[in-house]
Amino acid sequence: MKRANRQTPVPLPVPTETRLARRVLVVSHNAAQRRIFAIQLRRAHYKVEEAASVEEALQICQRVEPDIVLSDWAMPGLTGLDLCRAFRAAERGSYGYFVLLTSTGDHADIAQGLEAGADDFLTKPVTQQGLLARLAAGERILRVEDDLRASNAQLRTALDRLRETQAAIDRDLREARKLQQGLVKERSGRFGAIQLSLLLRPAGHIGGDLVGFFPIGEDRVGIYALDVSGHGVTAALLTAQLSVHLSGSSDQNVALRAAQTGTDSVSPAALAHFFNNMMLEEMATDTYYTMIYADLNHVTGRLRMVQAGHPHPVLQRADGSVRPLGNGGMPIGVFEKPIFDEIDLVLGPGDRLLICSDGITEATNPSGRLLGDDGVEAILRTNAFLGGHVFLESMAWSVSEYCRGERQDDMSAVLIEYLPPAETVPLPGQ
């Protein structure tokens, strides 16, 4: 006969989380009632404080912060209602649950107690089961409040870290702004009768616009205006790379390298195609940009220009007439076989050409209306008596006023002026 196997009893699971021992303040002038409540609560693993009056209860609340207050309504002198009001008015580190003991369940009394700040009510006589059930309901609310406070503390910690990170990013962006502004080494230039003035104003710390110029030989100057899609770090990095290809250094500048071969420098259209191939073949990015590049002979006034998706340059002749130039062309870095617009004109004394980014032409007023080419023409006509940086600053102010200060895009411009010859003023007696 085989001996039966004796099975080892399976131990009950041990709770992984011990219930927090809540502190309960029992307030009643009836000593026997206080004692009964205290015994029942201690058996249920509550910490218990006792007070025979409201004054004594308030002293205990200053010394310790009870989680739950169980108070008689009717007491000699100050009542449980007075205690509830004082309890709610006191400063605490956490929420306290307040239960009023009443002799009747009168609706008017309940409304008055809720208005004073009571959370719950118990009608005498109170059974142990009813007492512990009400306190259990209060504990659930306190646990929710504890969780919320813990979550808020974590959120505050995370927010402080985010603020520190944002402050570090802002410092870096301010330094990056200085470096980006340094890409435009000269904000103005004079070549014979031609005067060049540049404006570069990012919408944020850094942007995606770039303007500049560089000499080509003895009688020509290259002028460029770029606007990279979007603005921010990606756009700023691309403008930094492009500035190398358009810098004054002859071994890096694409146009100057062609001029050094002994032939004529690369044409504006050829330069646009070079950049388009570079974007498609060498850069794995969805970023693109618009561009105007001009080759200006400052002796003859002839200007050959390519427009690659950039806003129309605006020509103002010496007689005050204003007209936009070009048909637009395609942006750089989008199409394998783009079509760029080529412009050829001759500037004369008193003429000027304004090249703007879309941060100016697409500036929007509060009603949603764009400034547009008409707005730029109006600015040129209104400021016909201004020139150089004074004109550019006046234009920038006009655009900001049009937007009511809510400018969303970078703003850049190049002003090319063919200065008229200085007038000879005869001296008295001549």
Describe, in plain words, how this protein is organized in 3D:
It holds the Pfam family Response_reg. InterPro entries: Bact_Sigma-Reg, CheY-like_superfamily, PPM-type-like_dom_sf, PPM-type_phosphatase-like_dom, Sig_transdc_resp-reg_receiver. Keywords: Coiled coil, Hydrolase, Phosphoprotein. Residues 23-139 form the Response regulatory domain. The protein contains 11 helices and 16 strands. With 430 residues, the protein is of the alpha+beta class. Helix 2 (54-63) packs parallel to helix 3. It is rod-shaped and about 115 Å long. The model is unreliable at 1-18 (pLDDT under 50).
Query: Whole-Å distance between the termini?
Result: 149 Å
- For CATH, the homologous superfamily of the largest domain is named as PPM-type phosphatase domain
Number of helices: 11
Number of structural units classed as domains? 2
Low-confidence blocks of residues: 1-18
**Helix-strand makeup class:** alpha+beta
Sheet-strand content, in percent, reads: 15-25%
- CATH C-level class of the largest domain is Alpha Beta
